[in-house]
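queue> holo job accepted (2-keto-3-deoxygluconate)
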Amino acid sequence: MKIRDIKVFACCPGRNFVTVKVITDTGVYGLGDATVNGREMAVVAYLEEHVVPCLIGRDPQAIEDIWQYLYKGAYWRRGPITMAAIAGIDMALWDIKGKLADMPLYQMLGGKSRTGVTLYAHANGETIGDTINKAQSQINQGFKAVRLQCAVPGLEVTYGVLGDKKDYYELQGNRPLPPEEQWSTAKYFNMIEELFCEARKQLGPEVKLLHDVHSRLTPIESARLGKLLEPYNLFFLEDVCIAENQDNLQLVRQHTTIPLAIGETYNSIWDCKELIQNQSIDFIRTAATHAGGITAMRRIADFASLFNVQTAPHGAPDLSPICFAAHIHLNTWTHNFGIQEYVGPGNEQVQKIFSHDIEVKDGLAFVSEAPGLGVDFDELAAEPYPYKRSYLPVSRLEDGTVWNW
Ligand code: KDG
Ligand code: MG
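queue> job finished
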């Protein structure tokens, strides 16, 4: 069996997705997600110019060899673009293997560790009351875990909450240049404790509450936040400070027992290694699309299990339903799985282009029994929605200093 062709699609049914389709000489094909938000076409070029020509004619069943060939063989290892390109191919090859074996991916990984995958929903509000109402409505729909993000009074736009009240916080139409947003740590601290204090009072002790700081704080401010929020029993605090200097997390750890989650921007097991083996975190948030595919996620999960770190894959809307499907398989298998981020099934066009039968009920996702990943991509349905240039926002302090977004 040989790889006959590899097609790379960039489409924008409301937001951009890069989809890889590996086609074999038997007609069996596999799909992968290679989306890097705001840098999509860099991955397309990397794949089309540097990866696809090397893979035509190869055995699609040699997943490990192809993974190592693309990783070690490039000389330039790691980085978001390289690893997303590898991930797109790797997912597609696992999809093909599952179709050939007539088995869903989770079975090939080792079978079920659980029946359903716990999801956390989002509640993004303009005020504390608004955020809590939105969380209540997620709880009413059956979610047992909700991430709370609230607008910071005095700032026009806050991460997770759009001033213009659109559905989500990033791509909104075709923005020619990155939008700029303001950040004030002092203003944030004036709001954040009350949000969780009120949420616990009104939502009760059972619901799992989470929060994403999106790397806005310094390590010592992070430690302060951890201590402030400890009484409200968060499930985890995410990206409390920047991820590059991993000693930051040790400093936070010395001051607080709040569970810490990090890793959505990490590209490889090497980015997670110190944090996991030093037990500086409780949850590793790598995504299949950004950390090198299923082959890499499997390795990260197993490594994390040695140190009691659980997996909590990133699940923002810039990861396509192909990645979501891969995560549901991985999470069904991974014994040390913690929780999966979930922002809903996407708009009508997304659902039409990427079809699957993953059931979401009572805050749990139930894996597809279809062979491979169990998701399909409708090329014709994607055609009317070509790629649109779009960027994540850039953050500045009130005095104009560029900050972490
Ligand atoms: O592309 C970046 C987004 O996916 C990110 O901002 C979302 O932090 C995020 C999250 O936890 O969903
Ligand atoms: Mg995040």
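queue> The mean pLDDT is 95.
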